[in-house]
Amino acid sequence: MAVFAESGYRGGSLKEIADRVGLSQAGLLHHFSSKEHLLAEVIALRDASDQARRFAESTPSGRDALAGLAEQVRHNTTVPGLVQLYVTLSGEAVAEGHPAHTSFVERYRALRRYLGVAVAEGQRAGDVDPALDPAVIATALIALMDGLQIQWLLDPAAVDMPTVVESYLKSLGP
Amino acid sequence: MAVFAESGYRGGSLKEIADRVGLSQAGLLHHFSSKEHLLAEVIALRDASDQARRFAESTPSGRDALAGLAEQVRHNTTVPGLVQLYVTLSGEAVAEGHPAHTSFVERYRALRRYLGVAVAEGQRAGDVDPALDPAVIATALIALMDGLQIQWLLDPAAVDMPTVVESYLKSLGP
């Protein structure tokens, strides 16, 4: 995870990973049959510690789902290495042919669907302005969180991610 | 630009760049003394076609500056290769030690400053809700635009960048 976070998937070499864990490259490839396999496992491990995946699999309730986003962002400020891994891999994975491309496409589709439902639920509960388009707000919320991570990693003292997300969530109120 | 957009700075090799322009690696290095130098020139070329840089250097007027963002986003939908270059390089450049790290830190500082002034101007002109914190809105606007690019590149048919940005700008009204 550290090597891919620092150097990306393309820039991170099997040799450096093997060196860091004290294995030969052959030893590493005994556990992970290829670099792509290693990437898939790293993403799975990252997701396991991330609420976003839980979101995408559960049935959201509007207010809880939106409050959960703010909580996720607060949590992310404590795990900069994982945030960097995500930013670096998502930046690479926009390229067609990147081994994580399809998984990122599907991840964002699931997130937009999940948050779109959450916003619509929030509207029915009277927590969210009924004039807003749930699909637009879902896309914006995800974009806001992704973009904040880039600014925060580059300049942590200047960018307060939770404050910005909470301010945006508050602006959705009726 | 195409090689760095597709493979990133770290993943893009001088050999591939030389091949694509029909030069030997020595020939390429005659024009650009190093891969880092080539990256600096690619970023400069990219910036030259980007209004963001002009923003950061001009004196913004609130309404024009914010309208200019929406226009920039509409323009970006016509240049996916440049957007991919930006997403891939910014994703890599969060790593300390990346040759573009400092330039991205400074770029975002300048953008936040510029847009913070623009939002405050908009508030004085009565276009923007005076209760909003200009620094928070500036950070959010940049984050929204950056995050949208990731989703749009991954799924262009599902993500309408201008609509989302215009909806956000509209929500800032008094």
What does this structure look like?
- The structure is a homodimer of 174-residue chains.
- The first copy, chain A, has 174 residues and is mostly helical.
- Chain A contains 10 helices and no strands.
- Chain A has helices spanning 2-11, 14-20, 25-31, 35-48, 51-57, 62-76, 80-93, 101-124, 134-154, 161-171.
- In chain A, α5 crosses α8, α6 crosses α8 (101-124) and α9 (134-154) runs antiparallel to α10.
- The N and C termini of chain A lie far apart (42 Å).
- Chains A and B meet through α1, α7, α8, α9 and α10 of A and α1, α7, α8, α9 and α10 of B.
- Chains A, B: It comes from Cryptosporangium phraense.
- Chains A, B: This is TetR/AcrR family transcriptional regulator.
Element layout with pairings:
The structure is a homodimer of 174-residue chains.
Chain A lengths: L1 H10 L2 H7 L4 H7 L3 H14 L2 H7 L4 H15 L3 H14 L7 H24 L9 H21 L6 H11 L3
Helix pairs in contact in A: 1-7, 5-8, 6-8, 6-10, 7-9, 8-9, 9-10
Task: Produce a short descriptive summary.
The first copy, chain A, is an all-alpha fold and 174 residues long.
Oligomer: homodimer
CATH architecture of chain A: Orthogonal Bundle
| Strand-pairing-aware structural class of chain A | mainly alpha
Percent of residues of chain A in helical segments?
over 70%
Give the domain tally of chain A.
1
Compute the number of helices of chain A: 10
Secondary structure tally: strands of chain A: 0
Beta-strand content estimate of chain A:
under 5%
Keywords (chains A, B): DNA-binding, Repressor, Transcription, Transcription regulation
InterPro entries (chains A, B): BetI_C, Homeodomain-like_sf, HTH-type_TetR-like_transc_reg, HTH_TetR, Tet_transcr_reg_TetR-rel_C_sf
Protein name (chains A, B): TetR/AcrR family transcriptional regulator
Domain HTH tetR-type (chains A, B): 1-50
